Task: inverse folding
């Protein structure tokens, strides 16, 4: 599908925005107007003009059709330069340079890389994270239960113990850690419960 370079103008022919799209022009026009309608257009100049004039004062016209994205970007920049030089038009485009230039992207990547390398996690935080990871329970952890009648059972996992008792595996984990609702264990006939 070809790329279309388009111009969005107000009906007074004083303001212009130049863009390019691979979609149908009517779909791109709808996207612009919908974003403006919900006050979320990325271009503050277009949004301000929409807020001032309303939705009926904009027209969309195709100015050039290109075969590739690179050709469309070059054509878009050419049209931006043309309208920037024309005194009768007020250009609404914010980015009027080739922001996809490799040198700029490489500079940004290098700066981000340096910034990421300078971030360090404090030793205390690292120790807490390690302890939390080691102390977490898994549904496959084996469980030991001593029943009130004196019998003992070893379950291969929290899930199997929970199924036998008739509670959730998280409840079994809480009981094994001694964190919550230990008083409910006798209701299920449990004298002692712990991880193996």
Result:
């Amino acid at each position: 599908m070809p790329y279309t370079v388009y111009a969005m103008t107000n009906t007074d022919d004083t303001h212009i925005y130049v863009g390019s799209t691979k979609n149908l022009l009517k779909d791109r026009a709808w996207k612009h107007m919908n974003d403006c309608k919900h006050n979320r257009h990325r271009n503050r100049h277009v949004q301000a003009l929409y807020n001032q004039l309303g939705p009926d004062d904009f027209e969309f016209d195709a100015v050039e059709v290109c075969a590739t994205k690179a050709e469309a970007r070059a054509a878009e920049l050419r049209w931006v330069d043309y309208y920037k030089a024309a005194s009768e038009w007020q250009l609404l485009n914010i980015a009027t340079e080739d922001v996809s230039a490799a040198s700029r992207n490489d500079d940004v990547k290098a700066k981000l890389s340096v910034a990421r390398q300078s971030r360090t996690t404090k030793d205390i935080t690292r120790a807490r994270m390690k302890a939390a990871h080691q102390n977490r329970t898994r549904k496959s952890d084996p469980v030991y239960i001593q029943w009130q009648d004196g019998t003992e059972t070893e379950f291969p996992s929290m899930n199997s113990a929970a199924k036998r008792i008739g509670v959730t595996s998280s409840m079994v984990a809480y009981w094994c850690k001694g964190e919550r609702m230990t008083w409910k264990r006798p209701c299920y006939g449990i004298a002692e419960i712990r991880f193996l």
About this structure: The chain has two domains: 3-95, 143-195.
